[in-house]
Amino acid sequence: MSGSVYSLDTSDSLSDSSSDLDEEALLAQQEWEESMEELQKLLSFVLLPMAGKYFGRTFSYWGTYASE
Question: Which of 54, 56, 13 is nearest to 64 (CA)?
Answer without folding.
Answer: 56
